Amino acid sequence: MASLQKKGESYYCQFMYHGKRYTFTVGAVSEEEAGNKSRQVDYLLMRLKQRLIVLPDGVDIVTFVEHDGKPPSVDGIPITRQSITLGDARDRYLETLSGGAIEENSLSTMRMHLRHFIGTLGEGIILEELTQPDLQRHISERARKKYRGKPLSPVTLKKEMASLRAMWNWAVHAGLIRGHFPSRGLVYPKHDEKPPFQTRAEIERKIGAGGLSEAEQRELWDALFLTLPEIDEMLEHIRQQASHSWIYPLIAFAAHTGARRSEMLRIRVHDVDMAGNAVLIREKKRAKGRRTTRRVPLSPKLKTILQEWLAEHPGGQFLFCHAGEVFRSKKRSKTTGHQWKGRSTSLKGRMATVKQREKPPQSALTKDEAHDHFQRVLAGSRWEVLRGWHVLRHSFVSNAAAAGIDQRLIDSWVGHQTEEMRRRYRHLIPSVEQEAISRMFG
């Protein structure tokens, strides 16, 4: 609330706005008139807090309340920066990014993170008026949410905050708002470090000992990496069970290069250099604002697999593609045009609108198709514990580190940039560790 002080013959009004104290001179007026001014200040601050009015561009809060919310210096000047809401900024920001500025997966993640902020703070909140307490409230509310039976990790919360920060910085550069992102002093809950990558035997021993919740077991399986013999065994299972010819070479490619799923789906046929025993990987994550590439050597086995795949490749520019329909549901009909409302009672009448469903043209695989068939080909086998494509990337890097390959080579093959990434992969297969400690102590 605004308060009044009197010094000599003049009254002074003090009030708090966004955590800061402000003072202005009311003047040598009667006590009643000074009280009316104090109440007017409270009313204006309340209206600002309720987002019913906005602070005009270029006007400080003291000038605003001194002139009862109608400062003469801004007559006829359109309200721009302070009037943009969180919802408006989100829509404009995502529209800007949707032009191919970032990878589709990253765009989906950004969209989800901003949706969470909308859920906590509301679409109508003025973006420039976001304060540190607003962001702290979001952290506190989100920290109470659970995912797979466990509270959201601080890592997830920090990623959400990074998405909002990126949007804020974009809005500043676009001239929509001013000021620094108010994240200084934010407090996140403590969290446990992710478990190190482990072999299947290690995970099964821990689960077999009992006492782990389903969430803890899932976390262990997320840390799984396959040894080289296990990779060979899994690939042989896939080769025999795959329902489409592209499944085996695609999964083999992931296991032998450590490439991300999205990167594999972008590879062109001409990116594979059989004579040079290498493949060009098209990146979108490593550098901001430009597309980069990295070169990964082909193992002899992968080279053979790709040569066999290219011999029956259906055509087109993408290395991994399909010529016909990739089924995701057994319920999908080969015909279309069936009438359900007001349909004829006779068979001839019902079939009058039915026609054969057209087969889609040759096209690149989608991430959903790749994920769906990864799960299908492993279902019912001992490999169905694999959580997704990324386990093959984990396995590639882990086996490379265990084999003592120079870290600089590993970084260049998989595109790692941070020490945190390197440290989590910097381990040895248990048998190698045991051999090392035995050599040391005899």
Structure notes:
The chain has 442 residues and is mainly alpha-helical. The protein has helices spanning 31-49, 61-66, 86-97, 104-121, 132-143, 154-173, 200-208, 214-222, 228-241, 247-257, 261-266, 300-311, 347-350, 367-378, 390-402, 407-414, 419-425, 430-441; strands spanning 3-7, 10-17, 20-27, 146-147, 150-151, 272-273, 278-283, 292-297, 321-322, 335-336, 355-356, 363-364. The relative contact order is 0.07. It has 3 domains: 3-78, no CATH class; 86-173, DNA polymerase, domain 1; 225-340 and 347-437, hpI Integrase, Chain A (Orthogonal Bundle). The strands form 5 sheets. Strands 1-2-3 form a 3-stranded antiparallel β-sheet. The chain has 18 helices and 12 strands.
Compact summary:
The protein is mostly helical and 442 residues long. The protein is built from 18 helices and twelve strands.
Record keyword descriptors for this entry.
442 residues; mainly alpha; DNA polymerase, domain 1; hpI Integrase, Chain A; 3-stranded antiparallel β-sheet; 18 helices; extended
Topology diagram in text:
Layout: E1 3-7, E2 10-17, E3 20-27, H1 31-49, H2 61-66, H3 86-97, H4 104-121, H5 132-143, E4 146-147, E5 150-151, H6 154-173, H7 200-208, H8 214-222, H9 228-241, H10 247-257, H11 261-266, E6 272-273, E7 278-283, E8 292-297, H12 300-311, E9 321-322, E10 335-336, H13 347-350, E11 355-356, E12 363-364, H14 367-378, H15 390-402, H16 407-414, H17 419-425, H18 430-441
Antiparallel strand pairs: 1-2, 2-3, 4-5, 6-7, 7-8, 9-12, 10-11
Helix pairs in contact: 3-4, 4-5, 4-6, 9-10, 10-12, 10-15
